Amino acid sequence: MTDRNIVLFIVLISIILTVGLIVLLPTNDRTMINIIGIVGFILSILGLAIAYIQIMSVKNIAEQTRNQVIAIIELSNDMLMISDLSRKAAMVDEIQRYLKDNKIELCILRMKDLKIILNSLKNHEQYNSLFKKNKFNLVFQTFNINLDNCQQHNLNEKSKINKISIIQNLEELSTLLMSVEVKLKNISHD
């Protein structure tokens, strides 16, 4: 039943109730003041009923609006996460270029930046559902070892780093990030 139908029903009941109360009054009590009092009482009840219906209608609209806002926020967060993942994958590419160009100091700086981001990714609940924890932990652990090796090499050039191995490990990290991005995009489209 719509709000309009409910209001019409209440008005009809009010009219019937008003007429019924007036008819039930003894003839000598059917004064203008008594009739106005009955009509006023019924109109007050009618007003309260209509106000209640309007409040419930506003409550329903507010709930629908709230649900739409939540959906928009979730979509926005998904888009930000997708953008964030793309940025991480681009950082991996940048680190690989620095390695290939033998710019170890720049490589270390970007790896440290990426480590901070990956650490937050590792602890982010929404991301955790998109990858296998043990796989991510292994890739993250390897990333940390590679970072440490690059730092050791930067301090002492006699210590060797295996650029090919590091680049392969970074490629594995990039693949993991891209797979999470694809899963996230699929979730966003559902």
Structure explained in plain terms:
With 190 residues, this protein is mainly α. The chain has helices at 3-24, 32-100, 104-122, 125-128, 133-155, 163-189. The chain has two domains: 3-62; 69-189, Four Helix Bundle (Hemerythrin (Met), subunit A). 86% of the residues lie in helices and 0% in strands.
Any chance you could write out the topology, listing elements then pairs?
Elements lengths: L2 H22 L7 H69 L3 H19 L2 H4 L4 H23 L7 H27 L1
Helix pairs in contact: 1-2, 2-3, 2-6, 3-5, 5-6
Q: And the CATH topology of the largest domain?
A: Four Helix Bundle (Hemerythrin (Met), subunit A)
Q: What fraction of the residues are assigned to beta strands by DSSP?
A: under 5%
What distance lies between the first and last C-alpha atoms, to the nearest angstrom? 33 Å
CATH class of the largest domain: Mainly Alpha
Secondary-structure element order, N to C: HHHHHH
The biggest sheet amounts to: none
Would you count the extended β strands for me? 0
- Classify the secondary structure makeup into a structural class: mainly alpha
Dominant shape: rod-shaped
Could you tell me the mean pLDDT?
A: 83
Count of DSSP-assigned helices? 6
Number of individual domains: 2
Given as residue ranges, the uncertain stretches (5+ residues, pLDDT < 50) are none
The radius of gyration is 35 Å
Which percent bin holds the helix content? over 70%
Gross CATH architecture of the largest domain: Up-down Bundle
